[in-house]
């Protein structure tokens, strides 16, 4: 069986690739989550972003993954979904 | 894989007694040096000592040769097939093989066996791998590590429950359930009014978990939903509860094993569950009708996952299908913009008059006891309740007439403000008798297990009738 090829059940009016979530046109009044994935110096980069965003009136919250080697725990991404409009993640060191 | 452009081809499998019978004949055919290819579908030990033996492990050669039965003997000339026969018929083999006295020790004739290309499920896989499936839906390639079931959720193709991933093989198998062409457009599905082909219905039927034999019922249900009278756009978009309820009548219900008996409105029967679900998946995926987007139901109803059952037809009462003008031999679907199931408990009535009054009292609350001529309703009468009417000689039509009389309601009780309730009819009805249902707005079906003095009211959309939705019945084709 060619299980990894599926036939599109829709009217094919949107791209086959999943679209990204819509981006906000402005961060004003929104909450931005800064997710530190526990890679070295991620905190330095994210702290600087915090300064820049806070200076522009954006609400900033900090989050941290226990380890960069595994996906975020369900509790963490559920919390991010609940509390943030936008998330910035420091992916590399 | 090269076949002789001038010579003979035999396709065989060792599992077939006739193929084993003719194995010595293959040596006779190749004895004079005539090019001979022996295509073996299973055990390569078959005819292993012949130079032209080819093990067709993938069945590609058998598929390309269009083999239905083994053994098949083909004569090739100039690179093209000239003639073929299958099974063992000495005369045919001698003519095609071009020699006399073939298989002198064998009986004159033995039938062959099915080619492995025709084993269950194999033909569709071969068509996907080596042939032209004739399918036109866009292929969506998911990641190697992606779980296909999860991928369907991620892409928004599910109603919230897992779906069967629609691979080309499964869709081809589903299409075997109908004689209609996969590319036929059966209508335009709201809300997007997107054209819907038989193939798209098959894809969604696969996802719903249907068997191929359900396809004619699913197609009829989708076509009924697309009829203007049914008003599927409004049924979907309304803030009210309704979804398409499917009642199946006629021989097809028994043929595909639908449930009209114990727990017929509930879970557990594959045909009931998946036919109703397939229709809703077509609305969701082809039409783009998703809850929270165009579907604005304030509450919805569990029947919007699936709501499909068969009538427990019995000679004592005309079936819904016959009442709606179809022959007793016809198989039909009737679509109704149904809401929830409301219990009618009456374990004491032993006369049709008493039980009819119970039904009328329970039907009066459809939408609101003070509203009328808004929502249609289906009265689902169980066999035990039906027996009360049948024993007294009341036909279904008689019960409908009696209910029409019992549901002429005094306007003074119904108008806005009456009984201390603001909801109600306009004041102009105060001195009139008001029918609860519009003409033809009440339908009766006999459904359920044989034990239980219970029936049910299934209320319809409060915008029933020409402005909203009317029940639609459609004959099930092939």
β-strand amount of chain B: 15-25%
Helix content of chain A: 10-25%
As residue ranges, the low-confidence spans of chain B are none
Tally of extended strands of chain B? Answer: 21
Domain module tally of chain B: 2
Q: Tell me, briefly, the overall form of chain A.
A: extended
Write down the overall mean pLDDT of chain A: 89
Radius of gyration of chain A: 17 Å
Query: Using DSSP, what is the number of strands of chain A?
Result: 4
Keywords for this entry:
heterodimer; A: 93 residues; alpha/beta; 4 strands; 22% strand; B: 478 residues; alpha+beta; Glutaredoxin; 2 domains; 21 strands; 29% helix; 21% strand
Structure summary:
The complex is a heterodimer of chains A (93) and B (478). Chain A is an alpha/beta fold.
List the helices and strands and how they pair.
The complex is a heterodimer of chains A (93) and B (478).
Chain A: E1 5-7, E2 31-36, H1 42-54, E3 59-64, H2 74-83, E4 86-90
Chain B: E1 7-12, H1 17-21, H2 23-30, E2 36-40, E3 53-55, H3 60-65, E4 69-70, E5 72-77, E6 80-86, E7 88-89, H4 90-97, E8 109-110, E9 113-114, H5 122-130, E10 139-141, H6 148-154, H7 168-175, E11 185-189, E12 194-197, H8 198-208, H9 215-225, H10 232-237, E13 243-249, H11 251-255, H12 270-285, E14 308-310, H13 320-323, E15 332-345, H14 352-363, E16 377-381, H15 383-391, H16 396-406, E17 408-410, H17 411-414, E18 433-435, E19 442-446, E20 454-460, E21 472-475
Parallel strand pairs in B: 1-2, 2-3, 13-14, 16-19
Antiparallel strand pairs in B: 1-5, 4-9, 5-6, 7-8, 11-12, 13-15, 15-20, 15-21, 16-20, 17-18
Helix pairs in contact in B: 5-7, 7-8, 8-9, 8-12, 9-12, 14-16
């Amino acid at each position: 069986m060619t299980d990894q090829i599926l036939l599109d059940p829709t009217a094919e009016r949107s791209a086959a690739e999943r679209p990204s979530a819509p981006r906000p046109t402005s961060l004003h009044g929104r909450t931005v989550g800064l997710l530190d994935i526990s890679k070295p110096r991620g905190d330095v980069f994210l702290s600087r972003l915090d300064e820049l965003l806070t200076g522009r009136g954006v609400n900033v919250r900090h989050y941290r993954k226990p380890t960069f080697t595994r996906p975020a725990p369900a509790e963490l991404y559920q919390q991010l979904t609940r509390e943030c409009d936008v998330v910035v993640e420091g992916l590399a060191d | 894989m090269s076949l002789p452009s001038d010579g003979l081809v035999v396709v065989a499998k060792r599992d077939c007694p006739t193929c084993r019978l003719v194995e010595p004949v293959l040596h006779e055919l190749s004895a004079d040096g005539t090019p001979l290819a022996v295509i073996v579908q299973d055990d390569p030990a078959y005819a292993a000592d012949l130079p032209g033996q080819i093990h067709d492990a993938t069945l590609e050669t058998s598929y390309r040769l269009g083999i239905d039965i083994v053994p098949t003997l083909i004569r090739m000339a100039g690179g093209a097939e000239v003639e073929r026969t299958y099974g063992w018929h000495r005369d045919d083999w001698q003519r095609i093989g071009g020699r006399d006295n073939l298989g002198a020790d064998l009986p004159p004739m033995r039938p062959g066996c099915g080619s492995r290309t025709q084993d269950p499920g194999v033909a569709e896989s071969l068509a996907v791998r080596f042939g032209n499936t004739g399918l036109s839906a866009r292929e969506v390639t998911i990641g190697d590590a992606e779980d296909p079931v999860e991928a369907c959720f991620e892409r928004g193709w599910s109603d919230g429950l897992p779906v069967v991933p629609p691979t080309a093989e499964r869709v081809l198998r589903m299409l075997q359930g109908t004689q209609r062409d996969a590319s036929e457009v059966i209508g335009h599905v709201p809300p997007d009014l997107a054209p819907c082909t038989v193939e798209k219905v098959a894809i969604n039927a696969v996802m719903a978990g249907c068997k191929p034999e359900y396809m004619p019922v699913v197609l009829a249900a989708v076509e009924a939903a697309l009829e203007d009278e049914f008003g599927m756009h409004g049924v979907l978009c309304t803030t009210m509860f309704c979804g398409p309820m499917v009642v199946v009548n006629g021989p097809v219900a028994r043929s595909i094993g639908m449930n009209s008996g114990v727990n017929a409105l509930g879970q557990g029967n594959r045909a009931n569950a998946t036919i109703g679900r397939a229709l809703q998946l077509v609305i969701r995926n082809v039409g783009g009708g998703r809850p929270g987007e165009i579907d604005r139901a304030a509450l919805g109803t569990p029947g919007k996952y699936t709501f499909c059952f068969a009538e427990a037809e019995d000679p004592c009462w005309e079936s819904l299908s016959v009442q709606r003008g179809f022959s007793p031999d016809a198989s039909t679907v009737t679509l109704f913009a149904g809401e929830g199931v409301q219990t009618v408990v009456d374990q004491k009535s032993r006369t049709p008059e008493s039980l009819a009054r119970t039904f009328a009292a329970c039907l009066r609350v459809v939408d609101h006891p003070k509203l009328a001529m808004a929502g249609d309703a289906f009265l689902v009468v169980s066999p035990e309740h039906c027996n009360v009417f049948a024993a007294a000689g009341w036909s279904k039509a008689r019960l409908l007439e009696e209910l029409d009389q019992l549901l002429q309601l005094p306007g003074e009780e119904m108008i806005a403000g009456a009984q201390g309730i603001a909801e109600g009819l306009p004041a102009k009805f105060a001195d009139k008798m008001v029918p609860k249902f519009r003409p033809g707005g009440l339908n009766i079906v006999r459904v359920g297990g044989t034990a239980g003095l219970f029936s049910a009211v299934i209320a319809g959309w409060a915008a029933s009738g020409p402005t909203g939705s009317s029940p639609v019945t459609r004959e099930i084709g092939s």
